[in-house]
Amino acid sequence: MSNQKTEKLGLKKSLSYGMGAIGEGIGYNFFYSYFIFFMINIAGVNPAVAGTVSLIAVFWDAVTDPIIGSMSDRCRSKRGRRTPFIKYGSIFLGISLALMFINIDLPAGAKVVYYILINIAYWTFLTSAVIPHIALGSELTDDFEERTTLRTCANFLMNIGMLIAISGSLMIVQFFAKIFGSESLGWTATGVLFAVIIVFVYNFCCFSVRNFEPENPNLAEGYVPEKLSLSSVFSSYLQALKVKPFNKLLIITFCVNFAVGVGSSLMIFLYTYVFRYSENKTSFMLLITTLFLLLTTVLAGVFANKFGKKQMMIGGMICYTACYLIMAVLPAGDFTAYLYILFYGIGNATYWTLIYSMSYDTALIEKFKSGNSPDGLYTSMIGFFMKAGSAIGMWITGIVLSAIGFNAEAAEQAADTIANLKLAFGIIPAVILAVAVIAAIAYSLTKEKYALLLTAAEAKENGVEYRVEGLERVL
Fold first, then answer.
1. SS3 content of the chain, % helix, strand, coil (to 5)
2. For residue 258, what are the CA distances in angstroms to 266, 297, 319, 430?
3. In this structure, are residues 170 and 30 in contact, taking their beta carbons and an 8 Å threshold?
4. C-alpha atoms less than 13 angstroms from C-alpha of 260 in its C-beta half-sphere
5. Calpha distance 381→355 (Å, rounded)
6. Contact predicate 89/132, CB 8 Å
7. Are residues 142 and 357 in contact, defined by beta-carbon separation less than 8 angstroms?
8. CA distance 17 to 15
9. CATH number for the domain whose boundaries are 230-443
10. Are 61 and 128 contacting, i.e. CB atoms less than 8 angstroms apart?
11. pLDDT tens for residues 114-134?
12. C-alpha of 177 from chain center
């Protein structure tokens, strides 16, 4: 039984669905951009330990991703497969975010344990909201181009969340710091504010889609979903890894998010110590970056529909690689920073606009082969590789900061430290992103191949003869 919609959604419905992505944008970017900075500069945690805290928590979340995705695929709620997870997951996500940015007064060892436990809770509940929300998009339409439009709307709104989290955070922290009398409480109040926003936007999404969310296919008469177990999740995981177009997306995802883990964590250090920007100038540069992402997100969706998702992904990964090489090679200054923003905006927007749309497309391969719709599993696997990449990147960030002799208590950093910080920011992400370029070139599920596959899948589902000529590389 198919539960996907074939009629056009329209802009209003796409935006209603996309509202939840604001919470995703805040949740990811506030953590990636400021949590290591908060632990080192506010909570007084050793840089290498701070990176390890992030590594442990995000790896835990990466392990739970496929489990939550599979639970969502098997959910038998009358309210749908996805919205119950989104609604309640976002509430606990908000609570854990509020607790995460507290400079708790504990001995050093106990403080580290506290941040590990809160991070584990945070990432578990973030997954509980994000994975089902993204998977819901695949159920709203099976049209190749409209999926790109849907994800363009979601990514645009996710960048609004990014704008709030990255560009607004330092100003909001300072605002609350003046009210409460300390920078530490400023961070705590900012965490509480973002928690409230996240809970609101995800629940607004659930309320808005209630009239056009597909019926839960797991409630069909006579249908019994496969019982959830670790072995069944692991088996499904291995099966998905054999889908060649999908495993290329996983490689791209790992590489991009490794670069995000390094780049986002080091960016504030780079602007502060290498470019010598003030907090206001840093906030301004982050604002410009995010505003440009809003523009490139729309353009990425338009160009992908015009020229093809594969072609756009290749170009985006080339630009992503170039932005970090620019930082490594050119001298620190406004020209370098703006040139970086130009190429970064194209690469980042391309990845986030297309990755889930392309994942939706590849899930059709498994549906054709087995009759199952593994949208939640595929989305969670993207999440697994995303978080594994970013966790390793953030872990390496902590090690790099220690290795180059960074001292958070020093007013001035040594010249060698500053030079090595700039090189690390540029070279490490560029090398790994070059692998993403190769994976994008090898991706085989084009628009034409998808049309052939969709026709064959529908014919097979209806019990009529179907053809697979031209799909050899895909299948």
1. 80, 0, 20
2. 12, 21, 16, 10
3. no
4. 26
5. 12
6. yes
7. no
8. 5
9. 1.20.1250.20
10. no
11. 999 999 999 899 989 998 998
12. 30
Contact 311, 445 (CB under 8 A): no
- How many other C-beta atoms can be found within 10 angstroms of the C-beta atom of residue 460? 16
Task: Please state the domain extents for the chain.
Answer: 9-214, 230-443
**Which amino acid does the sequence have at 170?**
L
Work out the widest C-alpha separation in the chain, in whole angstroms. 73
Q: What are the angstrom distances between the C-alpha of 180 and each of 97, 176, 187, 197, 280?
A: 19, 6, 10, 21, 20
- Indicate the angle between helix axes 375-403 and 47-74, nearest 10 degrees: 180
Confidence label for 141 from pLDDT (cuts 50, 70 and 90)? confident
- For residue 92 the two structure tokens come to 């606990």
Element (H, E) at 38: none
Residue 19 confidence class, pLDDT cut points 50, 70, 90: very high
DSSP class of 211: G
Contact, 97 vs 25, CB < 8 A? no
Distance CA 207, CA 87 (A): 9
User: pLDDT digit string (tens) for 344-363?
Assistant: 999 999 998 899 889 888 88
Question: Cα angle vertex 122, ends 53, 398, to 5°?
Answer: 20
Both tokens of 346, joined, read 């194209």
Chain center to CA of 264:
13
Count other Cβ atoms within 10 Å, centred on residue 327. Answer: 26
pTM: 0.76
The single-letter DSSP state of residue 103 is -
Question: Which class for 107: exposed (0-12), middle (13-18), buried (19 or more C-beta within 10 A)?
Answer: exposed
Q: Which residue, chain included where needed, has tokens 């031209």?
A: 470
**Beta-carbon neighbour count of residue 204 at 10 Å?**
15
Q: Could you please report the per-residue DSSP string of 330-347?
A: SPSSHHHHHHHHHHHHHH
For 68, 130, 174, 205, 240, the CA distances from 136, given in Å and listed in that order, are 14, 10, 37, 11, 19
C-alpha distance from residue 256 to each of 132, 180, 283 (Å): 22, 38, 23
Task: Choose among 272, 214, 240, 294: nearest CA to 421.
Answer: 272
Decide which of 3.40.50.410, 1.20.1250.20, 1.10.10.410, 3.30.450.150 is the CATH code for 9-214.
1.20.1250.20
Q: 10: which 2 tokens?
A: 């329209």
Rounded to whole angstroms, how far apart are CA atoms 359 and 382? Answer: 8
What is the Cα–Cα distance from 290 to 166, expressed in whole angstroms? 8
Enumerate residues 6+ apart whose C-beta is below 8 A from 359. 138, 246, 249, 378, 379, 382
Question: Coil, strand, or helix at residue 356?
Answer: helix
